[in-house]
């Protein structure tokens, strides 16, 4: 098991969230609105920030949800130096398996996620990373990553 880091930050402005998303290098963006999903996108367009979404790379995932005029953010990572300033570490003794597991990627015709969407290159292999509390062995979060 390797140490994992889980943090939260509430009442974040859209501008601050957009900047945080752009700081995550080589990331894949996935936004959701009431009536559609963006699909996996390698190029984040700050003008199209979805009310709910996630962005992930090989070491971290950021999830957000809009609450009024601001956003609540959850940060899941495996490198402590990545936890951005202003985030509060979530209580718990967090860990991840040493190896990321293969995600079950469904065909584009399936309604389940994650699914292989046309705008994600075939060479990107989607994986899953499980964040568990060492004391209870309970998996609290499943984050996406890629190889």
Summarize the structure.
The protein is mainly β and 147 residues long.
What does this protein structure show overall?
This protein is mostly beta strands. The chain has one domain (2-146). It is 7% helix and 40% strand. The chain has one helix spanning 14-23, and strands spanning 2-3, 5-12, 28-32, 52-56, 60-67, 70-77, 88-89, 94-96, 101-102, 126-133, 139-146. The strands form 2 sheets. It has a 6-stranded antiparallel sheet, covered by helices on one side. Strands 1, 8, 9, 10 and 11 form a 5-stranded antiparallel sheet that branches. Strand 5 and strand 6 (70-77) form a beta hairpin. The chain is globular.
Pick out its properties.
six-stranded antiparallel sheet, single chain, mainly beta, five-stranded antiparallel sheet, about 150 residues, 11 strands, about 40% strand
